[in-house]
Structure formats: structure tokens, C-alpha cells
Amino acid sequence: MQPIISRTDYRQEDAQLSRLCFALENDGETPQAFAGLSAQIGRFDPEGAMALVFRSDWGREMTPVWQAAAGTEIAVTSGRACKGWAPWAFIREKRGVWRFYALETFGNWRLKMTAEGTVVFSYDAQMLSGELVPGERIDAGAALCAQDKSYGALCAAVCRHLQRTLPPSRMDASIVSFNHWWRYEDAEVTEEIVLENARAAKKMGIDLVVLDAGWFGEPGKNADWTKLRGDWQRVNPERFPHGLRWLSQQIHDLGMKFGLWLEPEGMGEESILRKAHPEWEAKRRDGLPQSFLCLGAQGAREWLLGEISRLVEETHADYLKLDFNVDPGFGCDRADHGHQSGMGQWAHMKGYTALLDELRDRYPKLIIENCASGGMRLDLTMLAHTDVSFLSDPDESDHSLQAFLWLCFLPPGRLLHWAWSQTRAYADGIHAFPPLAHEKLAVHAGAAMLHPFGFSRDLAGMTKAQRGEIAAMIARYRKEIAPIIREGHVCLLTAPPLRTNRTDDGRCVPFSGEGCVCELRGECRAARLTYDARGARIQIIDRPSSKENNQEESSI
Predict the structure, then answer these.
(1) What does the pLDDT read at residue 549?
(2) Fewer beta carbons within 10 Å, N or C terminal of the chain?
(3) pLDDT greater than 90 at residue 384
(4) What is the DSSP letter of 461?
(5) Any bridge partners for residue 427, and if so which?
């Protein structure tokens, strides 16, 4: 069965852009089977052409790989669109033209650049297969394709196009958040710790407190939240004896916003949910790494919408951080869920995006954050159904900038990260990633200030002087930088480090001794970030179009 491709062309400055939407349809009189999908989405001159693609894994998001375009093939089979490779690709032709491809999928995908100079987007048969009855049609994703004269011009054009065409975001760039996770995780968090930090955060100018994992489950500080995902009705009474409604009220009484973490698709192996509704659990004949809630199953999405709505209304939540820490692979293939065995992942993602849209319609002011073990599900699908996306779990400055600067084609107001966190030590003395002492925070915090940001550390344990330094930075951010973020785009004046192979670990590469320089450019002002061995410094520049301040973007 050949895909139906509908095309919409756009113009953004000198850039040419096209959005290709794929569908499968049975226009015959008998059922028709299909196995996979393949569509040519572009052409390029293969002689001397180079590809810029990005490996992606936990703490290794947006790892750039620079290689010959002809023969480049990347794919995701984990079920999360950025687990393995990121769904973005650039091609630089020998004559200097740059091309860009971005995918809108339901988790798995394949992208191939052939020796003949074609760019092919496809699903393997394992990714999508089934049978359509006469007259049935299914949507099967989309691709955004663009070309321009230079890398910087192309990124700016794509960014402006997305700012114009994506559904509006409720995330105000001026919002600065506190999240308890890295300093306390689920092992140490209590309601008093949250409130102590909320009171300190208020004095620093932080206006959103997000309660991360650790608030639900069985009594006791040693309860394992991963095994109890889905039990959203069970607030841990030892850690949060007064409950979520009370905690939220305390934070709202401080004049702050309240946010709540959930893993809505989670179904912990020891959860009440799994025992009460085994008919909703995703299963696969060849096994799945972990349990999760199949939103293609009859009744599962309706139940989940009710649970989330109850929590939002009970706590008057202003913000939801929605996480997903499971690789669903090729998805559920149960015969009793109402979806076909080869369409489990498709059905699940259709259910999840419909859930997101229902929440946004029901609560017009609610901000929804897209997170999946950090940045494992950052693609055009999630950008279109949420307000802001988390870049990565680790947030030390080199890695944070690696992810953010290579995503300069996305609207910066839709990307969230924290300034370098204060991670807790585990029983063996190691940390999830290198922590940063309070006294060094002011030197590095600027590296996170070209997009919405926050903090995950013991704010109450900082000295008055340290809190004062950060308060001044937040005030400056809110006054001078946030207004540029809303409609601005990021321009690289020096390129972040590149890799030329696929064999290294993929963790952040330290910037060179000369560091990097980039600008967040608005219509009348720019915020120039310089990052080097001395730290991160931001300079506000008027009239960025003047000769002095309108430097050429870096060559790649």
C-alpha cells in the first residue's frame, strides 16, 4: 500500500519549507494489509555532501555526528523518538546549500540518505503494520523539510516558522522554577523540605515550585516510586502527612505557582493499578523491558484523564511535568486491546496525544511539560501537543549547551533546563553527574538563561549572599532576556564541538579554551552569551542588526 502524501509549502525569508503529511488509506472494496511505509521526502547532490545527525541517549542528547551524507542511515526502535538518534538531520551540499529534515512520528522511525541523493523516511514492518478495512484511513506522521543558503539562516527560518505554526504555548518565558529532584530525589524529599525551599525560592524571585517523584506510594521513606507508578491516589503519608491539597495551598499562599510531576503512562510492577486493571497493561509476545499503561486499550485513556483531572482540581495545579521512563519498543501487541498487533505503538501515541489535547482544552491555563528521562521524546509531535520540553536530566553547563545550541532551530521559549544542579551523593559516594557547589552557581547560571530555566538544589541551605546573587540574576533575566526569548532565535557565532564518528561514549565534550559565543536575537535587542573557562556571561545588545553586533554565524 503506497502512502498518500499531502504537501504544504511555506516561505520564510529566503528559506523554502515544506510540510509533508503521510497517510495510509484503503479506497478499495476489500480489506488491505500493509507492512511498513516508505516515502521520499527530499533530494540532494550526493557529491561531497556532508550530513549532520545527532545521537541521543540519557545524558547524551544531541550528540552531533558529522559524516558523509550518502549512505547515512539513522533509526529509532526504542519507541521514544529521541532514544538512539534525534529526529533531526542536516545536509550540506558541496555547493554550499543547506537542507534540513525534522520528523513528526509516534516513536519509531527510520531516515536514510542514499548514494543516489534521495532522502527517505520510513517505518519498518515492525514499527507499523496491519490491515485497513474499506474506506479506513490512518495518519502516519509528517516531516518538515527546509533549505537555505547557510546553516544559521536555515536554523533561524525553521525557528520562526515553528513559532508561527505550532499551537501557542502557555509557558511564559519569565517563569523561573524550583524542582526538588536532584538534591533530594525520592529518597529524602518531605513536605517540610519542599516548603523550606519554596520560602527561600520566593525571596529569590522564583515563582514556580514543582513537586517531582517521591510524593506518592506506600508509607516510608524507602518506598520505590518506580514500582508504584500509576498509584496517583496514594500520597505517601510519611513524607507528605498533610497531603497535596494542603501543600499546594501553602505554596499558593506564598504567591507562587504549584506544579506536579507525573508519569502518566507508568504502570509499576507492584502498583495497585496493575493488579486492579491487568487488562490495560501493555504486553508483547517477545517481551517488554517494563510494564506500562497501553493507552490504546479500551478505557485506559478515560481512566487516566480522570486521575490527572482529579489531581489538577484537587491541588489547583498550574503546571504538570509529564515524564516517561520506559522504552515501549514496538509497542503492545495484545489482541484484546482493540488495536491491531502491529499498531500498538501507533495506538498508544494516538491515545497519549489525544489525552494531552483533552487536558489542554479542559484547563486553558495549565502548562504541560514534556519530559522522558530528560529529552528522550523531543520531536515535532510533542512540540505540537505540549507547552515546553525538558532538554536532559544532567544539566552541567557543557552538556546543557551541547543540547541547547544544537537545537537552535527550535523556538527557545519551548525548551526548558535547569542551571547546574546540586546532585545528592548515593550510598557508594557517586553522583548522577558532577554536582556544582553553591558558591560557583552564579558563574554558571547564565549558561541556562537563553531559555526558560529553573533550579534543583538546596536553596534553603545557600547563604544570604549566594541567594542574593542568584536573585539579581533572575531579576535581570526576567527584565532583559525573557522578553527576547518569546519571539527570538539563537544564532551560533562559534560552533559547539563536533564529532566525526559514532564510537565514543557521547557524553558532553568540553568546549575549547576559547569557549563559545552565541546570541539570542530579537527584533530590536540581542542577548549575547559567552561561555568559556571563566564561566557564562550575558551581554544585552541594542540594535543587533548593526555591523558590530550582527556578526556572521559560525561556519560548520
Answers:
(1) 42
(2) N
(3) yes
(4) G
(5) none
Instruction: List, for residues 111-142, the tens digit of each pLDDT value.
Output: 999 999 999 999 999 999 999 999 999 999 99
Q: What is the CATH number of domain 4-149?
A: 2.70.98.60
Mean pLDDT, residues 251-278 taken together: 97
CA 110 to CA 123: how far, in whole Å? 6
Distance of CA 398 to the CA centre of its chain: 18
CB 347 within 8 A of CB 265: no
- Three cell numbers, residue 164: 508561527
Q: Which triple of cell numbers denotes residue 98? A: 543547506
pLDDT (average), residues 263-286: 96
Concatenated DSSP letters of 179-245: E-HHHHHHHH--HHHHHHHHHHHHHHT--EEEE-TTSBSSSSTT--GGGGTT-TT-B-TTT-TTHHH
Q: Do residues 127 and 80 lie in contact, with contact meaning Cβ atoms separated by under 8 Å? A: no
What is the spatial distance between Cα 380 and Cα 384, in angstroms, rounded to a whole number? 6
Q: What percent of the chain has pLDDT over 90?
A: 90
A 10 A CB-CB count for 406 gives 23
Query: Bridge partners of 74?
Result: 111
CA distances from 166 to 107, 249, 321, 384, 387 (A): 19, 33, 20, 6, 10
What digits encode the pLDDT tens for the residues 489-499?
A: 999 999 877 77
CA 42/CA 48 separation, integer angstroms: 17
d(C-alpha 278, C-alpha 184), whole Å: 33
The pLDDT, as a whole number, for residue 13 is 87
CB atoms within 10 A of CB 302: 12
Residue 62, by phi and psi: left (phi above 0), alpha (psi -120 to 50) or beta?
A: left
pLDDT confidence tier of residue 548, bands split at 50, 70 and 90:
very low
Residue 51 CA to residue 81 CA, distance in Å, equals 19
* Distance (Å, whole) CA 215 – CA 268: 15
Q: What is the spatial distance between Cα 193 and Cα 176, in angstroms, rounded to a whole number?
A: 19
With 60 as the cut, is the pLDDT of residue 109 above it? yes
pLDDT of res. 337: 97
Q: How far is CA 61 from CA 90, 136, 376, in A?
A: 16, 38, 8
Please state whether the predicted TM-score (pTM) of the whole model is above 0.70: yes
Distance from C-alpha of 553 to C-alpha of 224, rounded to nearest angstrom: 48
Count the neighbouring beta carbons within 10 Å of the beta carbon of residue 317. Answer: 22
How high is the mean pLDDT of the chain?
94
3-state secondary structure of 61: coil
Which amino acid makes up residue 228?
L
| C-alpha dist (Å) from residue 250 to 167, 198, 257, 423, 542 | 33, 9, 10, 26, 41
**What residue segments make up the domains of the chain, in order of their start?**
4-149
Q: What phi and psi, each to the nearest 5 degrees, are found at residue 400?
A: -60, -45
